[in-house]
């Protein structure tokens, strides 16, 4: 491609970023004089690209609405963002993946973008999509990784290649290590890579936004069978060291408890009726003993939660609407009693006279 044609396409890409672009700004970006910028705009107009000239102190050029869409120019970052946005939208329920109009539109849009991508980028994007697992809709502020880091790790996951990463820990300390990556996981607005550190022989999870660089290494590794990176990441988050370690016994099935306490927050294990029944406080009444005799009513689950704060737990436990026993910490019992007292006080309070 000759240099003038490349600069005309570069001009189109700049204009597609939106807004009014001054002639001086365009000349600086394209490394040409202002007269040449005007000539490049003329080339775009000859191609029926709707470029508008805006007069005035802050005037310049902008793309207008035309009878057909101008050629779409996407950088690697933009192509990745569009394809992941379409897929994440479907998986989050924003765009259904069935045969409805919106679902079909998202699929055809992705197909059109993929069709015009160079082979170099298509393969790497396929690696991202093939190694990515979604857990839940994002919450809080997102922490986006570097595109180069994401693509390199996805390529290593796809081809079972070791990768060298530079990582900045939460305490700011930097390290360099080799990783055998098993998969990428997107959870609550963050990206994680799950794999084994061959130097110590232990499975590890790293946040991609803390990886400053990633380089695929020669060689290959064998991925163990039965690996579930998404489940491993959720379990790791639920068991990470926090200020408080909470242990509960909740009367109910594990699935109904997980509806309020998902895997990223708590570990829920259903126990046998016999092992859970004797953990309930002795009330001295025959009614409790009769209830425990019923196998279904006596089904208990063990719940483990790690948290930096305890003040949010009383309301969550109340929302379970199930009998529970607090094993530890004792501080949580005081918070639950105080919460219950506030509820009782509010229930008995009468409306003030107007």
Ordered list of secondary-structure elements with their pairings:
Elements: H1 3-15, H2 23-30, H3 34-46, E1 51-54, E2 60-63, H4 76-91, H5 101-116, H6 119-131, E3 132-134, H7 147-159, E4 163-168, E5 174-187, E6 190-197, E7 202-207, E8 211-216, H8 229-239, E9 244-251, H9 254-258, E10 266-270, H10 273-277, H11 286-293, E11 300-307, H12 313-320, E12 324-328, H13 330-348
Task: Give a structural overview.
By secondary structure, this protein is α+β, with helices and mostly antiparallel strands. 42% of the residues lie in helices and 22% in strands. Strands 3, 4, 5, 6, 7 and 8 form a six-stranded mixed beta sheet that branches. Strands 10-11-9-12 form a four-stranded antiparallel beta sheet. A two-stranded antiparallel sheet has the order 1-2. The protein is extended, with a radius of gyration of 29 Å. The termini are far apart.
What's the gist of this structure?
By secondary structure, the chain is of the alpha+beta class. Helix content is 42%, strand content 22%.
